[in-house]
Amino acid sequence: MRTHLGHPHTRYFFRHCPTSPQNRSFLHLPSPDLFCRRTINSRATSIPDSPPPLASLPVPRSPPPLAIYVHWPYCQSHCTYCNFNKYVVAQPDVERLTSALDRELRTSLAERPPNQVVRSIYFGGGTPSLAPPATLAKLLNTVQHYCRIDPATTEITLEANPTTLETGKLRAFRALGINRLSLGLQALNEPALRQLGRNHSVTEALRALAQCHALFPSGGGGGMGVGVGGVTFDLIYGRPDQSTVSDWVKELNIGLECAGSHMSLYELTWKRGTALFRALEAGKLQRASDDLLSEMYEATIETCAAHRFHHYEVSSFARLEAADSFPGPGPTNPPDLVNNGSTLLANPQTWLSWPHQSSHNSAYWRGLDYVGIGPGAHGRVTDPQTGRRKRTIRIPHPPTWMQQCEELGHGLRLETELTDQEAREELLMFGLRMREGLPLSRLRRYGNTNDLGEMIDMARMQELVESGHLNWGTARVFDDAPPKANLTAEIVETLPVSMTLWPTAKGIALVDSILPRLLHDKTT
């Protein structure tokens, strides 16, 4: 299927690191690998065979909420566009994999501050809906032991394929506390599904979507990335079968009619090593032109807005309904937002409190800590002793990863400490993907600076502000605030204010070209 591998991939640093991958976003960001120093860490970790009693854990000092990504590496088949860390195995050793995932999870969480609030848990892959419910139950119990899960605010997502076999397990997954489902639709026409190597039909996709909406209703909370619950799905545009904008808009409208409160829309990324890329090299397929892709992106924004879906991140769209609480400044009635909301949508505080955002992906873009568990998973964590940001990468090959988990308690392949400059560049890359932007307070916390001029060319920033691509001003931020099921106007007013750099609607579509202009040229 698809996978963030701990980061959104584009989808990953990812998929999405990226967290969805296949689908990448319209923008093509440089891999964070470019900014990380690599070192091998083969340290052995002593961990208990079972978690220590809660009474033995010291009282926490309210660390920021944590996100957790768990990677299930197996799929039923290979999709033609996907080159992520997945394997087709007839009879995987589920018991051994479950034990290794649990052991690595306990090792990682034992290193975190005790009783840390969990903002989100994301089961990605691969196709994690192939896992037995008992596997997910074991892992959720381990998280609950070391951390704090609040059913009202903790988003727990499972990626799934829209097949009859998998939807039959949904009730069991829902009973475990999973409150959000991410369906990999990818396309809503039969020829495209076959070309992408998907093993479901349009009819199966729409039927599964309806069943999932019934079992996973959208949460009513909003803001601070908390929508809790619901169903989201992915669609890919810029595919070889789409020769006109109208081809895509027709398909998008079908998806919008069936959508709940969230969806992700990605431009096709041609990944070397995939069947689709080989067909491209052989001249059997053609890429869409840049002009067509640009027109498709613009049509995506306009079509979604007509259905009250707005992109709070480059490729992530959330719906605002009349019943939603919306504490941001300006008009609060959805019809006013659609028809006369340009001022409101230009305010970063609007996006801070936008309902139904993905808490998990937002954690990536906001530079918050997330633990990546499983073969090939990526993570970003802050060392509680030094305050330095670290990047972690797990061994990708499942048998090798499982063996090291059994021997050392973890499948860690690389652990690197980011320099201040590397941390700042990541914050800038991801912060400008979101309409709420990058608050200076986040640079101070994770990049160890109050001076924006240390990382970007201020003269060029001013040019981009004057050209209508960026804005620079004050806005409220919530990085230190706990998740809330409902972000009321009163809560918003208690949040700290920070100078913030944020993209305009015009700028977010060009962020890949804006970033190189902003960063200081290190070659001079």
UniProtKB/TrEMBL annotation:
Keyword 4Fe-4S: no
Nucleotide-binding is among the record's keywords: no
Gene3D superfamilies referenced in this protein's UniProt entry, alphabetically: Aldolase class I
MF term (GO), any: 4 iron, 4 sulfur cluster binding
Keywords: Iron, Iron-sulfur, Metal-binding, S-adenosyl-L-methionine
A Pfam family the protein falls into: Radical_SAM
Family matches, as PROSITE patterns: RADICAL_SAM (PS51918)
Top-level taxon in the UniProt lineage: Eukaryota
CC terms in the record's Gene Ontology section: mitochondrion
Residue span, Radical SAM core domain: 60-310
Gene Ontology annotations of biological process type: porphyrin-containing compound biosynthetic process
Protein name in UniProt: Radical SAM core domain-containing protein
Lineage, top ranks: Eukaryota, Fungi, Fungi incertae sedis, Zoopagomycota, Kickxellomycotina
